[in-house]
Predict the structure.
Amino acid sequence: MSSTEDNSNFFKRANYDEDYWNNYLAARPEYDQPFYHLVYDYHNRHSGLTTNAHDVGTGPGQVAAELSTHFDKVVASDVNDTHLAVARIRLGSLVTSKKVELRQSSAEGLEQTTPPGSVDLITAAECFPLIDAEKATQAFARMLKPNGTVAVWFYGRPAFAEPAYARQCQPILESILDTAFAKIIKGGGPQQKAAFKRGTDRMASFLDDVEFKSDVWQHVERRKWNPDHAMPFYGQDACDFEITPSSAIGDGEKVVEKKELTFWERQWDITGVRRFVLANLPTFDSNTEGEGTVAKYKELEEAMGGQGAIRKFTWPVVLILASKK
C-alpha cells in the first residue's frame, strides 16, 4: 500500500493470488487438534450444541474446514471478497454441498446478515487487531444462542525457540521485520495509521484490552502461551506512534499463562524465515528489499548456523473463550 492510499483495511489482497496464500499458510503456524479441542471442550461444558458455527475473518478458510467436522452448518465470513474467492477454491465440495456458506461481511456488521440467537459457536482467528472489538463483540452476543461460545485467538511474531540461538538471532529477525513494516506504517494516511495504532496496541496487550462485559458474558478465560515474548509482528522502531498496551480484564476472569517453547513449533532455514516475512502483509514485495535488508538476511543466516541450517521457532499466542449469558 503506497503512501497515497489511505484505508484501514490494509490486509486486503487486491486480487486472487494462489502463490501468496500458499506461502501465507506455509509460513504460519498450524492450529493443531489439541488446540481446537480446548475450544470444543469449553463449548461442551457450557452449551455443546453443534448445529451452527460461524468463522469470522475466515481468510483462506482453514478454520471453517475444521469446524465443518464438528458442526452441521458453518458460515465463513470475511470483509474481503478476494479472500472469499480463495476460500471458495480451497473449501471446494464443502461450499458446493452447502456444508459451508461463504458470506462477505465485516465482523462488526454480521448481525445485519445473521438472525439473532442462531449461532452455537463463533470463532475469530488472527483478526481481532484489525477490527473494532467493541462493535464486534456486541454483534457476536446478538448472534449467539444463550450459553453459546465465542473463541478468539491470535498469534504474534515468531520467536527462536532454542536459547543457544535466540539471543543472537531474535534481534536480527526483529530488525528485518521493523524495516519491512516501517515502510507501510510510516507511509500511510490517517485512517491507515489509526488502524495500525489500534492493532499494535491490541497485540502488545495480548488482547487484554478486549472487554467482555459481565452483564453479557460469563466464564471468560484468557489462555496465553509464551507471554514473555512480544506479540506485535514489529516493534517501536517501525512505528511513528507510541505503543501503549492496556487491559480490560474483568473481575473473575480466568487467566492462564504457560511458557511452552514447542507450542505450534515450526522449523525453518533462512528461506523459511524470509517467506514468513514476505507473507505478513499482501503488500510486501521481495523486489522492494533494499541492500540493508539483504545484508540482514545474510547476517541472520550465519547466526542461525550457516547455509541450510534449520532452527526451531515458537509463537506467543492468546486464546479467549467466553460464553454468552
The chain has a mean pLDDT of 93.
